[in-house]
Write a structure and sequence with these properties.
Low-confidence stretches: 444-450
Structural class: alpha+beta
Order of helices and strands: HHHHHHHEHEEHEEHHEE
Distance between the termini: 60 Å
Strand order of the largest sheet: 2-4-5-7-6
Radius of gyration: 61 Å
Helix content: 55-70%
Length: 490
Amino acid sequence: MQLRRQIARQIGGLVGAVALLAGASVWGINAAHQDFGAALRGYQSLRVVYGVGAGVSTAKALLGASRADPARVRAELASASARWQLELASLERSASATESALDGALRSALALFETPPPGTTAAYALRLASMDRILGQVARLASDIRADIERRQVAAERTRRTVILFMVSMGLLIVIAAAAIGIRQYRSVVTPIQQLSAAVRRFTAGDFSQRISPLRYAEFTALSDDFNTMASELDELYRQLEQKVRAKSRELVQSERLASVGYLAAGVAHEINNPLGIITGYAEWSLKQLDEPKSPDIRGIEKTLRIICDEAFRCKEIVQKLLSLSRCGDSAGAGRQRVNLGAVVEEVAEMVKALGEFAGRKLSVSIDSPSDQLHVHAAPGEIKQVLLNLAVNALDAVADGSGHVQIEVCRTEASVRIDVSDNGRGMTPATLERIFEPFYTERRDDTRQRGTGLGLSISHAIIQSHAGAIHAHSDGPGTGSRFTLTLPAA
């Protein structure tokens, strides 16, 4: 069903009802006007009849006087007759029998005064009788006119009441119909709009799976179909973007981790060189012992080989630590395992202590809870990356000789907390507000220091992906800094 057709039908019905009401009003007014007009004409005719009667009565009085003047009597009758002739001429209808009889009586009375009177009693009586006949006709006609006036007034009043009743009833029906149509139109338009608005609000809130079921009217159904099509396309686009963002985020995390591995590898190269030098020296000594013509020192060679094996395993352990840091994690949860944060902290601390550039700065680890209470569910490589970033940043912030970085690990009620604090240069409030923003760093102009501005941002994202939290605190420049990291206990 199309909404515009329904609206057109409803508006047409209202227009028709209003036109009917207007037509009834015009008809009622016209009928009342006709009835009241007829009554008014009746009053005018009644006044003429009374005038005729008055003239005839005057003529009769003159006729009965002791000194009657026939000329005056005839003049009164002629005046009455002329007035009645004018009244008959003004009628828009044919004269009734009573009106014609009155006209005939007037003409007959005038005819009696055309010739001089014979002066007999019979002639006088004949003239007097003619006037009485006229007065009788006047009385009957006046009675008929009054009856007609009353009938017209009753009809006009009845028409007025009928028209008023019809107009009130029709008006009430129109008001009720208009209210019903208005309510229906409101529901027909507002309800689908409210559904669309609610869907749009949920859509803008990020619920791209929101769809609108087909609505009653074709216009809104077409609109809902367009919305569903748009929502499907945006949902698919959002999913694709999400996948791309996750992939790029993993690449970024891995790139930062590999940068940290390269930074560590450069720092611990001399630590590997030491055992390699020992291995080389003892291997050469063993070869010389084997080349001796006399019997070689088997015990010495055995001891040498043991030392070579120990140093080789030492190199292997250093390399494994670097490889464990470089392995890819998955922030979505795959590859996570039960991890002892105390052991991870100690391992990272050992790697950082081996960096030559921090030889004059102190790094200590404090574990204040039993080892079995420090387990979390996490990706080991990612947690090592976060701790390495925090430890290196803290060591960067302190001075040689007096610099001290403290890493504390403890168990709280439902989480494991790590505090990385230092007595270095501290941070301003402006820095604290932006410390976890991507590409923000205070070391950008210092070419001797590494710092892309991504380390803390990536660390923040990693901890959030593990359902944890990381916060920074500093009382101001020169007062040191503290980073607090919490993860849900396993």
